[in-house]
Amino acid sequence: VTHSVPACIGSMMINGKQLDNESPVSIFAVNKCYATVQEGTFFDGSGFAALVREGYKVRSDVNITLEFRTTAVHGVLLGVSSAKVDAIGLEIVNGKVLFHVNNGAGRITATYEPRGTNSLCDGKWHKLQANKSKHHISLIIDGNLVQTDNPYIQSTSADTNNPIYVGGYPADVKQNCLTSKSSFHGCLRNLVLTKGQQAELFDFSRAFDLRGVFPHSCPGAEH
Asked: How do 126-133 and 107-112 pair as beta strands?
């Protein structure tokens, strides 16, 4: 077995003596256990998850669905960006959700603005769907649809072949369709990217780089 156990371990005794896990000699990728947990992936606000090392090709069409829960009004949700301008990005800025797409001719943005500044950042689960179909983009948050006009109708394909960064990204990686550098603090679950009939559910425990991300559980909802 080469991977860690996704679980909580407590009250460990060796030869009748209890181990002190409050002050370990060294610690790596171990988080505290929570009295109540939910299914999902916890992002502690310091890092990111990197998926698809070999590169994800956005091209003309992609549909992204996920659920998020946060109390922070800023945070990167997802980005895929080429070294040029072609890219897509999803982020929370000032309590609004922004979906940016650049097919090469210029960035366009669909913005979902809730009625109250904190109504999306209330520590409850919210459903997000971001759709790019050639030059059309739309955003659906909790069933509310936002669409935006695209003046660049000749440009339809975001030519990427790059990793998907979720919850943030490394300082040395360019993200042309993200305005925020704030790492996401909260929980995500059910991240699915769909192209045509092919839907891919991403398991964060299979990320090729995880920093400040705990893939197997979320602390229970904050009260």
From this structure: unpaired
CB 47 within 8 A of CB 165: no
Q: Which two tokens stand for residue 180?
A: 């925020």
Return d(Cα 104, Cα 221) in angstroms, integer. Answer: 40
Q: Which two tokens stand for residue 165?
A: 């960064």
Structure tokens at 173: 């990686």
Instruction: Set out the domains of the chain in order of their start, with CATH numbers.
Output: 38-219 (2.60.120.200)
Which tens digit of pLDDT belongs to each residue from 8-38? 888 889 999 988 877 888 887 777 777 778 8
With contact defined as beta carbons under 8 Å apart, do 79 and 89 qualify? yes
- Enter the DSSP assignment of 157: -
Convert the pLDDT of each residue in 52-94 to its tens digit: 999 999 999 999 999 999 999 999 999 999 999 999 999 999 9
Closest C-alpha to 140, from 94, 90, 187, 88: 90
Angle at 189 between CA 130 and CA 33, to 5 degrees: 155
Cut 0.90: pTM above it: no
